Amino acid sequence: MHTRVLRAVRTVHSEERFDLVIRQGQITAIEQSGSATGDEIIDCSGQYVSSGWIDMHVHAMDSYQPYGDDADKIGVGQGVTTIVDAGSCGADHLEELYQRSRTAKTRVLAFLNISRIGLGLRQDELSRAEWIDPQLAAETITKYRDFIVGLKARISRSVVKEEGISPLSAALLISEQAKLPLMVHIGSGPPGIHEVLNSLRARDIVTHYLHGKANNILDNHNELIPELNAAIRRGLHLDVGHGTASFSFHVAETAKDRGVHPDTISTDIYRGNRVHGPVYSLADVMTKFMIIGYSLAEVIDRVTKRAADWLGRPELGRIQVGDEANLTLFEVVPESRTMTDSNGDTRLAESIIQSRGAIIGEYFYSS
């Protein structure tokens, strides 16, 4: 019976160090630092532990270009224990993503693209009405109910082209019938952001909400548009989805100053923006939110508990005796580094979040 001890870890809520005991993949004890014994002692002096990081917006279909990557390179390899693929696949190819997920070390979940063709062959997947097949979507959801957490619709000009708001209307209908929430990508219009936000409901997600292109959440006077505040009051969930073109320091700082904050911090990571930036990793995106004034605890909350609560899997957002181990080890390193948003604007970080490892059950993956 293998026992692993994480020695002298601490949480973001307390500087008090403790030993975390994991036996056969289960958290069995939280003890005074230096007191626990086991078969394997991992010295975590200087490190934090949190429940496993969750990235709510990735693209994990490795064979897809450009929007694809290896699940474990953007997952446990970067300290992320759970990733949610944000609509890479529609009904035509969801089976392949599911089968790939079963061999990944990272926990993989998915939003189903309401376009049956998904993002594999082209990126205007909602530009033709015949690619939206509600019956096929319903059958796919029924078959993969434990894997699919919601639906995804990319509602921006380059995706819908002349279809306008019609794909969103179709997505909302499929969502209602399936009793699953909808994640909506926003970007350049038309459709206008006002029309999109007015359509969304409680538990729906708007991702890329901090993008700096035209058609964003700020009006001509640098104030938040009223439709955003109304949607938040209805229960809309705000997800970052940094991506190659969808995060602006200016918009994020302005939203924060106006009292609007992300519910979840996510990357929209895929091979290109992982290797060449500006995303690189979830830890880098988290660091950007510390730069603009969020505390470490506030940042960690948005990649752990808040994400887990939205997923309806609270066990993924806590550290509790009796649960399966689902943990991320990380440090905050004093280091000056220039961080870049999707518009090429920069800010200077004085400290950097760096993942050191992930634990899922019995397995430890070093970052």
Condensed summary:
This protein is an alpha/beta fold. The chain has 11 helices and 15 strands.
Structure description:
By secondary structure, the chain is α/β, with parallel strands linked by helices. It is built from eleven helices and 15 strands. The protein has helices spanning 94-103, 134-143, 157-160, 166-178, 193-199, 226-234, 249-257, 271-275, 282-291, 296-301, 305-311; strands at 3-11, 14-23, 26-32, 40-43, 48-51, 53-58, 80-86, 107-113, 148-155, 182-186, 205-207, 237-239, 326-340, 346-360, 363-366. The strands form three sheets. It has a seven-stranded parallel sheet, with helices on both faces. A four-stranded mixed sheet has the order 3-2-1-4, with no helix packed on it. Strands 5-13-14-15 form a four-stranded antiparallel sheet, covered by helices on one side. The longest helix is centred in the middle third of the chain and has 13 residues, at 166-178. It is globular. The mean pLDDT is 97. Its EC number is 3.5.2.3. It holds the Pfam family EF_0837-like_N. Keywords: Hydrolase. It comes from Paenibacillus urinalis. This is Amidohydrolase/deacetylase family metallohydrolase.
Radius of gyration: 20 Å
- How much of the residues is beta strand, in percent? 25-35%
Summed over residues and divided by their number, the pLDDT gives a mean of 97
Model regions low in confidence, pLDDT < 50 over at least 5 residues: none
- Would you tell me the structural class of the helices and strands? alpha/beta
Shape: globular
Order of helices and strands: EEEEEEEHEHEHHEHEHEHHHHHEEE
Strand element count: 15
* Largest β-sheet summary: 7 strands, parallel
Number of helices: 11
Helix content: 10-25%
Distance between the termini: 25 Å
EC number: 3.5.2.3
Pfam families: EF_0837-like_N (PF22647)
Protein name: Amidohydrolase/deacetylase family metallohydrolase
Enzyme class: hydrolase
